[in-house]
Automatic annotation (TrEMBL):
GO molecular function, one term: S-(hydroxymethyl)glutathione dehydrogenase [NAD(P)+] activity
InterPro entries: ADH-like_C (IPR013149), ADH-like_N (IPR013154), ADH_Zn_CS (IPR002328), GroES-like_sf (IPR011032), NAD(P)-bd_dom_sf (IPR036291)
GO process terms (BP): formaldehyde catabolic process
EC nos: 1.1.1.1
Needed co-factor(s): Zn(2+)
Protein name as annotated: alcohol dehydrogenase
First-tier enzyme category under EC: oxidoreductase
Length: 379
């Protein structure tokens, strides 16, 4: 392309300080360096993780910054040493990566790459620690190595999944974070058998994706647990058949579920980050074969407490990161599930806004009105 090797000037939504509306700015995006690619972002979506770091709650604030990590786009140019991607490829940038060389990448059982594992503190690129974004010579920090709230971004090639060019980027862009996290927690980790019962704790975007995984797997009963009853009607679209609001019961929710299911569910997936929900999700699975999977991120001082007999009675407790999907190897296959009509993405997308109105996406999420809001770049 004619822009190869050149600085690109484009629009980006910059966060100058915590909790303040993003500001549309003209930024300069430097060419990709070694093992990097520059991507023209066509569609991006807002994830709760963006909001969490935008609010700067509980971590070191790093501003000014360009957020965004769920997106779809087209490779504009590639840096030195990039052999598996070329200009014109349709891609999803991903917040975690796959270098292909470390013990985790060589293991069939792990997706937690030593080099490119999620890092929320890093504001520059791995190659040299520098930012590829600037305004009037002042560097703007990256976020999760993706920074997709910009018309162009630079990403390490190990964090870029090449996908089917026929796949609509305005739909499959949501595959690159929350959807795959929940879907994979069920399909890859809990692995319910056809006809089994599955409990989903938390019916936000990740929980609904976990329910979608249970639906795809052919679960017989999908029980949704949430403190917000407004979520129950929406969750029916994702295969959830029964609902439990812990506030409506005077006994522990694990006991309520055990009574509903003749001793406990076959599988449970926890998607809240609440330590109480994690313990409940484990204790509500059936002895002998029950498997509980933890997805939500707890507070740093939380401690998981349960009686050892719950484990000795042959219940299994597992954790997962990004649904156990390897970004480059496995995410193209998730896109194919959508293309083959196994996976339904449209029902996750509740709102669409032009890039110029990106702050509306934050409003929808803060009010609890959206599952996913697609942001159309160049609009």
């Amino acid at each position: 392309m004619s822009t190869t090797g050149q600085i690109i000037r484009c629009k980006a939504a910059v966060c100058w300080e915590a909790g303040k509306p993003l500001v549309m700015e003209e930024v300069e995006v430097a060419p990709p360096q070694k093992h990097e690619v520059r991507i023209k972002i066509l569609f991006t979506s807002l994830c709760h993780t963006d909001v969490y770091f935008w609010e700067a709650k509980g971590q070191t604030p790093l501003f000014p910054r360009i957020f965004g990590h769920e997106a779809g786009g087209i490779v504009e140019s590639v840096g030195e040493g990039v052999t598996d991607l070329q200009p014109g490829d349709h891609v999803l940038p991903i917040f975690t990566g796959e270098c292909g060389d470390c013990p985790h990448c060589h293991s069939e059982e792990s997706n937690m790459c030593d080099l490119l594992r999620i890092n929320t503190e890093r504001g520059g690129m791995i190659h040299d620690g520098e930012s590829r974004f600037s305004i009037n010579g002042k560097p703007i920090h990256h976020f999760l190595g993706t920074s997709t709230f910009s018309e162009y971004t630079v990403v390490h090639s190990g964090q870029v999944a090449k996908i089917n060019p026929e796949a609509p980027l305005d739909k499959v862009c949501i595959v690159s974070c929350g959807l795959s996290t929940g879907l994979g927690a069920t399909l890859n980790v809990a692995k319910p058998k056809k006809g089994q019962s599955v409990a989903i704790f938390g019916l936000g975007a990740v929980g609904l994706a976990a329910a979608e995984g249970a639906r795809i797997a052919g679960a017989g009963r999908i029980i949704g647990i949430d403190l917000n009853p407004k979520r129950f009607e929406e969750a029916k679209k994702f295969g959830v058949t029964e609902f439990v609001n812990p506030r409506e019961h005077d006994k522990p929710v694990q006991q309520v579920i055990a009574e509903m299911t003749d001793g406990g569910v076959d599988r449970s997936v926890e998607c809240t980050g609440s330590i109480q929900a994690m313990i409940q999700a484990f204790e509500c699975v059936h002895d002998g074969w029950g498997v509980a999977v933890l997805v939500g991120v707890p507070s740093k001082d939380d401690a998981f407490k349960t009686h050892p007999m719950n484990l000795l009675n042959e219940r299994t407790l597992k954790g997962t990161f990004f649904g156990n999907y390897k970004p480059k190897t496995d995410i193209p296959g998730v896109v194919e599930k959508y293309m083959n009509k196994e996976l339904e993405l449209e029902k996750f997308i509740t709102h669409t806004v032009p890039f110029s109105e990106i702050n509306k996406a934050f409003d929808y999420m803060l009010k609890g009105e959206s599952i996913r809001c697609i942001i159309t770049m160049g609009a």
